[in-house]
Amino acid sequence: MKHRLKLMIVIVITIGSSALRAQSPSHQSIEGTKSYGSGINIDSCRINILTVGYKLDMDNGQPTVYCNVKWKGNDSTSTCLANEKFDIFLTIGTDTAARYVYAGNSMDIGIGNGNYEWGSSTHSGPGMWEHLITKNFGLPDQLHFYSAEEAQVIWNTGFAVKTVKIVTSNGRVFILK
């Protein structure tokens, strides 16, 4: 009888801990938008308002980072932003260290047409743990990525997206809140 009671306790604890793991932040999508609305120039493109939408998720054990951009320029039919090169980083809040999820570059993400409509892209960002979370943001050749193992620990610990940083091809940085 005591043996069955101990077995039941072990089963209940095991089921309970599995349920807690299933609800951990790493298994939930993180999505949102961040905007910059005071007028900026990204190289030759004049932008009045810029919004980046993002969604971080998992697919078959691999991270997915979806990113999309809508913006309004001086000319509502402008497509100038689609011709500019830039990279997008999501500043994530974890413990005390600044970390950044690399969301991709302007060639990979959906960019709207300048009439404040979302672009149409189903592409997701890096998708590989070793090219996902960086210790810094900036030009692609200056990035210092966490190892795949470290990135998985950071991802599985859970985090929030604090800001979005856009880094242009000439190194200018714009912070969207």
SSE layout and pairings?
Layout: H1 2-22, E1 30-36, E2 40-42, E3 45-59, E4 62-73, E5 86-93, E6 99-105, E7 110-111, E8 133-134, H2 148-157, E9 160-168, E10 173-176
Description:
The protein is α+β, with helices and mostly antiparallel strands and 177 residues long. It has one domain (27-176). The protein contains two helices and ten strands, in the order αββββββββαββ. The protein has helices at 2-22, 148-157, and strands at residues 30-36, 40-42, 45-59, 62-73, 86-93, 99-105, 110-111, 133-134, 160-168, 173-176. The strands form two sheets. Strands 1, 2, 3, 4 and 7 form a five-stranded mixed β-sheet that branches. Strands 8-6-5-9-10 form a five-stranded antiparallel β-sheet, with no helix packed on it. A hairpin with a 2-residue loop joins strand 3 and strand 4 (62-73). It is globular.
Task: Provide keyphrases for this structure.
single chain; 177 residues; alpha+beta; 2 helices; 18% helix; globular
What string, H for helix and E for strand, traces the elements in order? Answer: HEEEEEEEEHEE
The proportion of residues forming helix, as a percent range, comes to 10-25%
Which consecutive residue ranges, at least 5 long each, have pLDDT under 50? 2-26
Task: Determine the structural class based on helices, strands and strand pairing.
Answer: alpha+beta
Number of strands: 10
> Which descriptor suits the 3D outline?
globular
Largest sheet: 5 strands, mixed
Proportion of residues in extended strands: 35-45%
Count of helices?
Answer: 2
CA-atom Rg in angstroms:
20 Å
What is the count of structural domains? 1
What is the average per-residue confidence, as pLDDT, rounded to a whole number?
Answer: 80
The rounded distance between the terminal residues' Cα atoms is: 60 Å
